[in-house]
Amino acid sequence: MNEPMPLTYGAEEGDFYFQHVKRTEPFERTNHFHATYEIFYLMAGQRAYFIKDRSYLISPGDLVFINKHDVHKTSDVGPSGYERIVINFSDKFIGADHPLFHPALFAVFQQPTNVFSLKLPDQLFVQTIMNKMTKELKERASGYETYVKLLLAELLLFSSRYAERQEAVSFEHASPMHKKISEIVRYINEHYSEPMTLSAMSERFFMSPYYLSRAFKDVTGFTFIEYVNTTRIKEAQRLLKETNLKIIRIAEAVGFENIAHFGRMFKKLTKQTPIHFRKHSR
């Protein structure tokens, strides 16, 4: 079987997105939370992956599952070269109203761990599915969309069964520093609506501002203020979609004291204004 060439199909915010790339230079996606599910499969190289409140070291053959709306970011570890496949899909693509739907397909997104280190036979099985998907998306023969959904369902069902077979192992942080940063992230996730400064956080967690700033970036891939703003804007999206609160009240509720700053950050992180998002998310 010939090795499939790198491919991008669909839009990141659409119902289905597939990208297979090899990179030799530092690169990162800018969308760190979204309303789609994400599957990440590393084929070569190493990556650090921060998901929700934990940091993982990802190696070739690791399969990563990220639930919709979970904050995440991948970054370089050592040399920047790597090869990976990313799949994003929405509930509309293969959700509850689809004939292929079964709750077991989504069980893998509810597991206590986000990362599965596949043994070689399972790697080969997953790569076969990925190769078939790449071929379908490239050639686009009649019925290819249906076959892609079948392949995605097969991958999800395989992964959920794989997760069921694994013995439950408690998550181990890579170091005491990783554990401390995880605690700080959980604190931000719970208190994002309150004033949040690096100096105040460093006092609360008994770290110097310089050390906290550097460690936070090393572990999560975000700067401290980037993560705070990302968490606040994610919650603002939920409130815009699910409530009728005025935008100025939403800005205050998620911790922004200045409505203009809220608007700038919202557009920077979502590529649209709060008004546009509310209009098109309902």
* Sheet with most strands: 6 strands, antiparallel
- The secondary structure category is alpha+beta
Along the chain, the helix and strand elements come as EEEEEEEEHEHHHHHHHHH
Radius of gyration: 20 Å
What is the spatial order of strands in the main beta sheet? 1-2-8-3-6-9
**Count of helical segments?**
10
- Termini separation (Å)? 45 Å
Overall geometry comes to globular
Poorly predicted ranges:
none
- What amount of the residues lies in strands? 15-25%
Approximate helicity band: 40-55%
Number of strands: 9
- The average pLDDT score comes to 89
Structural notes for this entry:
With 282 residues, the protein is α+β, with helices and mostly antiparallel strands. The chain is built from ten helices and nine strands. The strands form two sheets. The chain has a six-stranded antiparallel β-sheet. Strands 5-4-7 form a three-stranded antiparallel β-sheet, with helices on one face. Strand 4 and strand 5 (54-58) form a beta hairpin. The chain starts with 6 loop residues before the first strand and ends with a helix.
